[in-house]
């Protein structure tokens, strides 16, 4: 039997609803939504809990919200009890010998959440991580994003291990039937979930999306993919790099052996969908004609988590800063991101400290080694290519520690005047040669120039292109007549650093521009260390504050 | 999806030589533009640059261009009947609604008069919308004076102080625009706005001078000139801190402009 996507959605939704019920007092909207709710009735707890809830809601009067607020406070917050007798909804309380908060269970779930790149949820900062509301929310997240094994493991070791004891306490301290019913439903639902997950794990039920593929079997799969897609991955270009070394950059691959997966690529993945040089239109004397893409095929791009997170930053600039850009948008629409798992970080990586070590918006994920590849398929369109392979339980793992880390300063807008004039930036004046190599290597640098190209001197035919540019180039701000808005390499370095770790986020919210890939450091011919530049600024500002 | 990088051809209707290095190009154009906005003008083979609208009328707009580099030189080689490629209009505009019913002071230098000229003409044509208009326009010397006829015209309704940096000529004061700011009767105004447009140094000193004369910072408006490749928030050239001059500018209130730090 196959479990459909729709069923998973329903499961995740119910986890979220239960999470909400424990998170804080019920309000009228919540009660109204419960009235229309249809619950599974597969076991006695579910049946009886649902019946009790229905009865309560049917009889509930206008002051139900107030009554429940009192009940919530008494049952879960020990309001009005001198000895603190209540059903305190945190795992540590039920699993630690002395029944206190923030014990081993709490530490475990904190680590689990962090490993998935999850911070504290908005508006829930006052709850412990092992609060029932957060554990249920996490389990719901796992339904959407985790493997069966992860779901089962969390269910068994962090929910079912304490829920029965907790439910008994709710029965004891509850004053209305409401929370008793809710707890009953929770118990019933978790039991149902365990059965489902056991079925999925044993193969009685199936939802296979992950496969193990021997490398000799991958070759024909790649060939079939290439009939429909252009496939890009990091490739080796011998002796084309700095000082005669090999250059690893993105290119279209023909064979699996083309993929360089044990090293970090020197240039990022962005050149695949935002080319170094791109024709915008062609012109003759009378008109300009928009350039159409030569190859209409869609693109599969094997990218690291940092590069996938960087795509979102480029989207922000090209699609959301002002009107969307057609050339970018049409490449972006064709792009299918396949995650290339990082086994461990490389030199100069600091993605963990930038929060970009985990990327979830991929359509498939791949772990490659010398013998086989493990593949998780999220976009069902790609399932047919892998269906005949050996199903396994696989989801990519993410690096959770780098050798280096950024200490990103918390800058306030009003501090800019002071930061702008710091002598600190002058150290780059003599060192940086303004080559722009750092901009070229960066997955999030998006700036360009436009240039007109003519086919020969006397003809009226030609084209306008856009080509990558960068804020570290001396002429980047030069206006007609020769004036420069930013005049020194130090000023350019300040501009770049602040853009990457301050003003992009200030403008767009959400996230810093820099994803911590460290390529700008790897690339700099003058050994200018951008990470040291961030941390040095941080220290300087901390020193000034203190 | 609209292609925001693709220009379209527009016919040049006439060309007026203002000075040796500045010509006004009248170009066929149907459509609205706001005071202070600009277009990306281009000549295929040569390139593209932002140029403000300096005049407008039925079926046309005008650009007053200073010959300074490759593209502008190329434009100077065009004749009436040739086409100019354009995309736009771009940028924000002077907040005319906020200027209504109040006194207005305009201080401009050189080609900086181009982006404020449609604004001046608006209040010239609609005196009922404004109160008094004081205009200080500075030029390097007599050979650099732009819009001679219109300046004469403005004298009919506005208080005009034309000035030459360091030479004298009939009808002109002598000295930088900053030297004449003290002549504006700020104290007699109930509510007013000051618009300053010109080279960056001129704008900085004129603004400081105004503040010295008691003008509150948020009554001052300036228009920025930056390197621009795209004018649509993509190429990054015009960015200062978190601000894109092509999107949020080129017109800024001075209280914001002074927080933009290069
Ligand atoms: C909002 C706005 C409004 C403006 N309004 C007007 C106006 O009304 N009238 C007017 O005369 N001017 C105006 N300007 C200024 C005008 O845009 C410049 O004078 C114009 O760009 C000059 O173009 P050019 O090609 O002739 O000059 P150039 O100096 O040849 O080049 C133009 C720009 O491209 C850069 N550039 C050129 N070639 C290269 C290269 N090979 N490598 C790197 N950089 C290069 C230059 O640094 C310069 O910034 C305005 C500017 C802005 C931002
Ligand atoms: S600034 Fe450096 S570390 Fe950050 S994303 Fe760009 S190349 Fe990577
Ligand atoms: S920091 Fe290094 S890579 Fe970047 S422009 Fe300067 S010298 Fe080149
Ligand atoms: S001019 Fe390109 S971003 Fe403003």
Beta-strand percentage range of chain A: 5-15%
Largest interface: A-B, 55 and 44 residues
Briefly note the structural class of the backbone of chain B: alpha/beta
What is the CATH homology-level superfamily of the largest domain in chain B? Nucleotide-binding domain of ferredoxin-NADP reductase (FNR) module
In short:
Chain A has 546 residues and is α+β, with helices and mostly antiparallel strands. Chain A is built from 20 helices and twelve strands. In chain A, strands 3-2-6-7-8-9-1-10 form an eight-stranded mixed sheet. In chain A, strands 5-4-12-11 form a four-stranded antiparallel sheet, with no helix packed on it.
Notable characteristics:
A: 8-stranded mixed sheet; 4-stranded antiparallel sheet; 20 helices; B: 262 residues; Elongation Factor Tu (Ef-tu), domain 3; Rossmann fold; 7-stranded mixed sheet; 6-stranded antiparallel barrel; globular; binds flavin-adenine dinucleotide; binds iron/sulfur cluster
Report on the structure:
- The complex is a heterodimer of chains A (546) and B (262).
- Chain A is an alpha+beta fold and 546 residues long.
- Among the domains of chain A are: 2-207, TorD-like; 210-275 and 291-391, no CATH class.
- Chain A has helices spanning 5-23, 28-35, 44-59, 64-77, 91-95, 104-115, 132-145, 148-158, 163-173, 177-202, 215-228, 305-320, 326-333, 351-354, 383-386, 416-420, 437-441, 489-508, 519-523, 530-545; strands spanning 210-214, 229-237, 247-252, 277-283, 288-290, 298-303, 335-340, 364-368, 372-377, 390-391, 448-454, 462-468.
- In chain A, the strands form two sheets. An eight-stranded mixed β-sheet of chain A has the order 3-2-6-7-8-9-1-10. In chain A, strands 5-4-12-11 form a four-stranded antiparallel β-sheet, with no helix packed on it.
- In chain A, helix 9 packs antiparallel against helix 10 (177-202).
- Chain B folds into two domains: 8-90, Beta Barrel (Elongation Factor Tu (Ef-tu), domain 3); 96-257, 3-Layer(aba) Sandwich (Rossmann fold).
- By secondary structure, chain B is α/β, with parallel strands linked by helices.
- In chain B, the strands form three sheets. Chain B has a seven-stranded mixed β-sheet, sandwiched between helices.
- Helix content of chain B is 20%, strand content 34%.
- Chain B contains seven helices and 15 strands.
- The longest helix of chain B has 13 residues, at 200-212.
- The mean pLDDT of chain B is 94.
- Chains A and B meet through strand 4, helix 13, helix 16, strand 11 and strand 12 of A and strand 4, strand 13 and strand 14 of B.
- The complex binds flavin-adenine dinucleotide (FAD), iron/sulfur cluster (SF4) (2 copies) and FE2/S2 (inorganic) cluster.
- Residues 441-444, 500, 514-520, 530 of chain A line the site of one iron/sulfur cluster.
């Amino acid at each position: 039997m196959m479990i459909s996507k729709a069923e998973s959605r329903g499961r995740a939704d119910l986890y979220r609803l239960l999470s909400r019920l424990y998170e804080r007092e019920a309000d009228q909207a919540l009660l109204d939504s419960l009235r229309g709710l249809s619950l599974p009735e597969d076991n006695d707890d579910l049946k009886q809990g649902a019946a009790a809830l229905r009865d309560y809601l049917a009889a509930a009067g206008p002051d139900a919200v107030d009554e429940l607020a009192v009940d919530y406070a008494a049952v879960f917050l020990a309001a009005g009890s001198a000895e603190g007798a209540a059903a305190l909804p945190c795992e540590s309380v039920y699993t630690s010998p002395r029944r206190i908060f923030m014990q081993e269970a709490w530490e475990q779930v904190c680590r689990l959440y962090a490993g998935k790149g999850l911070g504290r949820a908005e508006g829930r900062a006052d709850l412990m991580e092992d609060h029932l509301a957060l554990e249920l929310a996490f389990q719901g997240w796992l339904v959407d994003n985790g493997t069966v094994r992860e779901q089962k493991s969390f269910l068994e070791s962090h929910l079912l291990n304490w829920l029965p004891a907790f439910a008994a306490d709710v029965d004891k301290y509850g004053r209305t039937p409401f929370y008793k019913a809710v707890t009953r439903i929770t118990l019933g639902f978790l039991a149902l979930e365990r059965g489902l997950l056991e079925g999925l794990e044993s193969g009685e039920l199936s939802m296979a999306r992950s496969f193990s593929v021997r490398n000799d079997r991958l070759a024909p799969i790649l060939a079939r993919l290439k009939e429909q897609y252009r496939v890009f991955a990091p490739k080796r270009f011998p002796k084309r790099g700095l000082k005669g070394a090999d250059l690893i950059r993105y290119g279209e691959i023909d064979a699996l052996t083309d993929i360089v997966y044990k090293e970090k690529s020197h240039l990022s993945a962005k050149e695949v969908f935002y080319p170094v040089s791109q024709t915008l239109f062609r012109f003759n004397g009378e008109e300009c004609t928009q350039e159409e893409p030569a190859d209409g095929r869609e693109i599969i791009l094997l990218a690291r988590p940092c590069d996938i997170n960087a795509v979102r930053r480029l989207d922000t600039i090209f699609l959301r800063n002002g009107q969307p850009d057609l050339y970018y948008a049409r490449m972006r629409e064709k792009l299918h991101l396949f995650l290339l798992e990082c086994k461990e970080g490389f030199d100069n990586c600091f993605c963990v400290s930038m929060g970009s070590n985990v990327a979830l918006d991929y359509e498939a994920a791949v772990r490659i080694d010398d013998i086989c590849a493990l593949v998780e398929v999220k976009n069902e369109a790609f399932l047919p290519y892998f269906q005949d392979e050996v199903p396994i339980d696989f989801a990519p793992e993410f690096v959770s520690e780098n050798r280096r880390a950024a200490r990103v300063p918390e800058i306030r807008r009003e501090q800019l005047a002071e930061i702008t004039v710091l002598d600190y930036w002058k150290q780059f004046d003599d060192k940086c040669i303004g080559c722009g190599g750092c901009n070229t290597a960066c997955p999030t640098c998006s700036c360009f120039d436009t240039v007109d190209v003519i086919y020969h001197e006397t003809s009226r035919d030609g084209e306008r292109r856009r080509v990558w540019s960068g804020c570290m180039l001396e002429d980047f701000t030069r206006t007609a007549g020769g004036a420069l808005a930013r005049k020194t390499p130090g000023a350019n370095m300040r501009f770049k650093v602040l853009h990457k770790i301050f003003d992009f986020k200030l403008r767009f919210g959400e996230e810093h521009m820099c994803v911590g890939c460290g390529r700008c450091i790897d690339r700099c011919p003058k050994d200018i260390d951008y990470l040291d530049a961030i941390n040095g600024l941080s220290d300087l500002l901390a020193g000034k504050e203190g | 999806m609209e292609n925001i990088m693709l220009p379209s051809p527009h016919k040049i209707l006439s060309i007026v030589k203002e000075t040796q290095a500045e010509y006004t190009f009248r170009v066929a154009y149907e459509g609205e533009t706001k005071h202070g906005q600009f277009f990306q003008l281009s000549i295929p083979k040569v390139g593209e640059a932002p140029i403000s609208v300096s005049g407008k009328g039925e079926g046309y707009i005008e650009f007053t261009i200073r010959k300074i580099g490759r593209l502008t030189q190329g434009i100077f080689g065009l004749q009436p009947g040739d086409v100019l490629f354009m995309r736009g209009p771009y940028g924000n505009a002077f907040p005319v609604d906020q200027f209504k019913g109040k006194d207005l002071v305009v201080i401009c230098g050189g080609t900086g008069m181009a982006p404020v000229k449609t604004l001046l003409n608006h209040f010239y044509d609609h005196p009922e919308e404004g109160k008094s208009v004081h205009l200080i326009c500075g030029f390097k010397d007599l050979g650099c004076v732009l819009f001679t006829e219109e300046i004469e015209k403005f004298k009919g309704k506005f208080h005009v102080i034309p000035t030459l940096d360091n030479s004298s000529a009939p009808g002109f004061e002598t000295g930088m625009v900053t030297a004449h700011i003290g002549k504006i009767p700020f104290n007699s105004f109930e509510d007013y706005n000051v618009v300053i447009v010109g080279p960056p140094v001129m704008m900085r000193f004129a603004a400081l001078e105004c503040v010295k004369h008691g003008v509150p910072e948020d009554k001052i408006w300036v228009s920025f000139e930056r390197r621009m490749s795209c004018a649509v928030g993509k190429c990054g050239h015009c960015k200062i801190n978190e601000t894109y001059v092509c999107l949020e500018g080129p017109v800024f209130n001075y209280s914001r402009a002074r927080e933009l730090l290069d």
